[in-house]
Specification:
Blueprint (H helix, E strand, L loop, with lengths): L6 H9 L6 E2 L15 E7 L5 H15 L4 E7 L4 H8 L9 E4 L3 H5 L12 H6 L2 H6 L1 E2 L2 E2 L2 E7 L1 E5 H6 L9 H12 L6 E3 L8 H11 L15 H15 L12 H9 L3 E6 L2 H9 L5 E4 L10 E10 L7 H11 L2 H11 L6 H6 L4 H6 L6 E3 L7 H11 L9 H10 L3
Length: 414
């Protein structure tokens, strides 16, 4: 995590089947009270069925310490929040003071946001992971606050590995393909590697392969889809699909149902998000699995990093003092780490990582943070490019030429 992002994070929210729209107001007031500098409207997505209660608890604790500030909470499903945001931003009275969503670049480019250094203390900014700060910045100015992180890592079924005689997880594409062939050869409806290239999140799986070839979707100044490195990654992706070791029709298979197949023990390897750990525990605690770095062309570690963000909107009434108090409170190590742990993601603060050192998600994913590469979500053209990826990249597993597809996706940047 729209998406793209809504990214990886919002994909998980969809995975949990959340389709409800939930609203609540905290401690009186309402979100139309835009003239009161001490009344804040706060719009957030629902990551899980506990999201609303977690924010309610944080807001209640904050209000006890700051009884003169009211925070009115509105919670929307990931399927609804893009439309809600578009509607709310049509007038200042309905625009939220603080918004939690994935993309921020359009709002920043339109001059609607406060810079991050005006809405949190410098101690909060210095506690954030540098790579995520960069991803929340445009031309050197940070406009948003990363909320928490999601990266990808390889999940593999250790029982299937043992049956196939595989003693260690793959580090390179060649090893990945070889291991997938051995697992697929076991039969019984088992697939070697899960390759979700359906429209749900095509760009995420593809990025793991293009990044693994040294590619990128941006050179820092413009979108770069049609490059030799990206082509090599997509060709490798096509090759493993052509090898017959994935699920049938990977070009039309979405990640959500495929993850469930892995949880049931029918896939040898798949790239997974942090919440997958909790999903396995809830749905099939007997599954024997382990995690390993994402395989790449030459074994050099790299992964996809995504983060949803908190941002604050400028209004005629200056609410920065109240906004800063609330966000500084939230990013305190104890408050922040409790929230992140409840949602089963990765903290993006140094203090949060330390506080959650024993958390299963942090143990499995913290090492991926320094090697994470990101979507160019700070480029307003990225949304159109991502949409083209979802429409077209899956066709390479159905006979389309990778070079032709990349050229077509590049056109979306125009």
């Amino acid at each position: 995590m729209k998406r793209p992002l809504r990214g990886a994070l919002s994909a998980f929210a969809l995975l949990t089947g959340l389709a409800l729209t939930i609203s609540s107001c905290g401690f009186g007031g309402n979100k139309s009270d835009s003239s009161d500098p001490k009344t804040l409207s706060f719009l957030v997505p629902s990551y899980s069925d506990g999201t609303k209660s977690e924010w309610d608890s944080i807001i209640a604790d904050f209000h006890r310490q700051n009884p003169d500030i009211t925070v009115n909470l509105q919670v929307e499903s990931w399927t609804q929040i893009p439309d809600v945001v578009r509607t709310d931003l049509q007038s200042e009275s309905s625009t939220p003071d603080i918004l939690n969503i994935d993309a921020y670049s359009t709002y920043a480019s339109d001059g609607k946001l406060y810079p991050a250094n005006q809405i949190v203390d410098n101690s909060v900014l210095s506690d954030l992971q540098p790579s995520f700060v960069k991803n929340a910045s445009i031309n050197g100015t940070q406009w948003a606050l990363p909320l928490f992180a999601s990266t990808r890592t390889l999940f593999y079924n250790t029982d299937l590995f043992a049956k196939a005689g595989i003693t260690a997880p793959p580090k390179t594409w060649a090893e990945l393909t070889d291991d997938a062939k051995k697992i697929a050869a076991l039969g019984g409806g088992v697939y070697g590697y899960g390759l979700p290239l359906g429209k749900e999140e095509t760009q995420a799986e593809t990025s793991l392969w293009t990044f693994g070839a040294g590619g990128s979707w941006s050179d820092g100044n413009k979108i770069t889809v049609d490059t030799p490195q990206n082509l090599e990654g997509v060709q490798a992706l096509k090759a493993i699909a052509d090898a017959g070791v994935t699920e049938p029709n990977p070009g039309s298979t979405n990640r959500t149902p495929l993850i469930n197949v892995f949880i049931q023990g029918k896939i040898g390897m798949i790239e997974g998000l942090p919440p997958l750990i909790n999903m396995i525990q809830q749905q099939n605690p007997g599954l024997k699995y382990a995690t390993a770095p994402t395989p790449t062309k030459d074994g050099a570690p790299v992964t996809l990093g995504v983060a949803d963000h908190l941002m604050a909107f400028k209004k005629k009434t200056d609410k920065t003092a109240a906004i800063k108090k609330f966000l500084d409170f939230f990013y305190q190590s104890k408050v922040y780490s409790t929230f992140v742990k409840a949602e089963h993601f990765i903290p993006v603060t140094t203090s949060g990582v330390q506080a959650m050192a024993d958390d299963p998600v942090v143990k499995a994913f913290a090492a991926t943070m320094p090697v994470a590469k990101f979507y160019p979500s700070n480029d307003p053209k990225w949304a159109a490019v991502e949409g083209a990826m979802k429409q077209q990249l899956g066709t390479v597993t159905q006979g389309a030429d990778p070079a032709t597809v990349l050229k077509a996706v590049q056109q979306a940047a125009s």
